[in-house]
Amino acid sequence: MKMTLPFRPVYLLGVILASLLCSFVSAQQPSSTLVNDPAMADESQGENWLAFGRTYSEQRFSPLTQINQSNVGGLALDWYVDLPNSRSLVSTPLVVDGIMYFISSMNIVRAVDAASGEELWRYDPQVAQYASRRMRAGWDNSRGIGIWEDKVFVATWDGRLIGIDRNDGRELWSVQTIDPELAMYITGAPKIFKGKVLIGNGGTENGPNRGYITAYDADTGEYAWRFWIVPGNPADGFEDAAMEMAAETWTGEWWRHGGGGNAWHGFTYDAELDQLYIGTGNGSPWNRKIRSPGGGDNLFLSSIVALDPDTGEYLWHYQTAPGDTWDYTSTMDIVLADLTIEGEQVKALMHAPKNGFFYVINRENGELISAENYTEVTWASEVDLETGRPIENPGVRYELEPVDIAPTPIGGHSWHAMSYNPGTGLVYIPTIHWQNRFTDADVDLENFQAEGWRIELGVGYEFGASTRDDGATGTLQAWDPVRQQQIWEIPAEGAWDAGTLTTASNLVFQGKANGHLRAFNALTGEQLWDENLGLGISAPPITYSVNGRQYLAILVGWGGAMSALGGQEMADYGWAYGDHTRRLLAFSLDGTRTVPVSAPPRVPTPLATSDFIVDGATAESGELDYESICSFCHGGAAIAAGMAPDLRASGVILSADTFEQVVRGGALASRGMPPFADFSDAELNQMRHYIRQQAEIALAAGR
Ligand code: CA
């Protein structure tokens, strides 16, 4: 011991010097993460949240453990930012080295200090000015942005892909990815890998559109490659061998209808196998009898397609809904994991598309390993593991008579993110339990031709009841992908709950449509924390850390398709348009704030008036225009759920002049209401009568 004494002061001095140096370095030069392939493939670091699903695996699993099962009940608000000009917020914020980047309504991107919320810069792509007529297709909610090295990438409603400087928000390059004449739009997050930015689009329901995805150079915005999802007219020649192969699975003159397949979400890059997986959309129009009258699988609709990330060349595919005729998109998350199945280590991908089956696929070759229904499924009895194909139940293609089908076009699971915890081995799925009725009895199948810029599906559908005995339309469930069975479930207060996050301390976090943010025990489903955030939540939470403090952050701003298409169940949440301030909130164990008070939920009451006499025949003439155009934001049967005003409660309808200025004149274009210059006076009048008729129906029913 004595021998060591003389060395001790020297050793201590060294430690002090080293720690001083470290603190000096960390104060002056914060560690700077290079956001590139190795960083996005790194599952071990938890400080940053670099991509939509945190890392390339899309697991939405965080290794952070400061917030755990025993202390999660003490989570409190640490900081928040009001976003008063926003409406629907559905996106995943990204965090790099203590700075948070996020996208809000009208595609405005902000950078804020991730420990205080202080705004560092803001980028506004002026969407209302660019989109104009395009605001008739899609919505202004974006699911996220991308980061690569020193740039942030934003895709806009109107179809632009823009690279901006991560340090100051300056626009560096911008490319238009959609033909402005086509009724397509973007709500998806750009996917970044290997110095490329990939973007898809939506629009399958808005016209005779043909889906594709395009990759651009991250540095310059220069075009790299495009993959078409469905074949075009063979007379024009095929773009590649994959399209020639796909054309064999279509019949009739499908190209007149576009075919669809638009991939608007569900892009995963597999750094291990250097493959890109694309989840593709449903058919356009929905009804296959119109689109491909002689039948056929209609590749690559409703599929996972593996591509070469450098060239976009086709590698393999697996189709989840062959010959789709129900809007069963496969654009949901594609999550990568190594699973041990029957003693073998398998490089798997996991996918829970709208059609109700949970798929585990060998991603080395695209072979189906297993598929079981994760919600009530009536369109198929099972998926045959020999052929990899679903076994359809008779009559499900509404070929004989109207048919009740589950899941609905909203899906058993939609884009609300699922998460996977490698520790528990479970997937946490926001699940929907609904059925709906399809019939094409009133459709002129032979002469159907969609015009574009309006919803023309080639089939009628009507939402029905819950498929569950307890009547719940939504649940959160933990699913074992190896055994292909449910481990636990929590019935929700309704449908349309948001995406999930899971952590290494075996927690699951989820925001609810009723405004509550909750934490659950990942193994048992026991609820451990509940905070009312005062407005329907439609975005998934993230977690990250700054200076040793773990934060849980979430955007709060009711949104997505069901907040637009409406329906009474959605309206009854009470997130009436314009009532509730949108926010970004961050919680921690050291938080000292309370969640700011929000306006109480309010279900709009239709306006009672004797100043407007509804003419039944005129109202009937307005139904088609209203339901195929206006309902896209203002809700079916004029029952709005918050994305846009409830027109039954609006005084604008009472005045022909004001209605004309808003609808034809574009008076509210800056707030997201597109101009409809082509409506005649007679058509405007018919729509007013239809809307007032819906108001009177609701009033008579006591709503
Ligand atoms: Ca669709």
Outline of this structure?
The chain has 703 residues and is α+β, with helices and mostly antiparallel strands. Helices cover 14% and strands 29% of the residues.
Q: Could you explain the architecture of this structure?
A:
- Helix content is 14%, strand content 29%.
- By secondary structure, it is α+β, with helices and mostly antiparallel strands.
- The strands form eleven sheets. Strands 1-34-35-36-37 form a five-stranded mixed β-sheet, with no helix packed on it.
- Helix 8 (616-634) crosses helix 10 and helix 9 crosses helix 10.
- It is globular.
- Residues 1-29 have low confidence and may be disordered.
- Bound molecules: calcium ion.
- Calcium ion binds at residues 204-205, 281-282, 327, 329.
Give the SSE layout.
Elements (H helix, E strand, L loop, with lengths): L7 H21 L8 H5 L19 E2 L13 E7 L11 E3 L2 E5 L5 E5 L5 E5 L3 H5 L14 E3 L2 E5 L4 E6 L5 E6 L14 E3 L2 E4 L12 E6 L5 E6 L12 H7 L11 E2 L6 E4 L4 E5 L3 E2 L3 H4 L11 E5 L6 E6 L14 E8 L2 E8 L5 E6 L4 E7 L6 E4 L6 E3 L10 E3 L13 E3 L4 E7 L3 E4 L20 E4 L10 E7 L4 E7 L8 E4 L3 E5 L4 E6 L5 E6 L9 E5 L2 E8 L4 H5 L2 H4 L11 E6 L27 H19 L21 H8 L17 H20 L3
Parallel strand pairs: 1-34
Antiparallel strand pairs: 2-40, 3-4, 4-5, 5-6, 7-8, 8-9, 9-10, 11-12, 12-13, 13-14, 15-18, 16-17, 17-19, 19-20, 21-22, 22-23, 23-24, 25-26, 27-30, 28-29, 29-32, 30-31, 32-33, 34-35, 35-36, 36-37, 38-39, 39-40
Bound molecules: calcium ion.
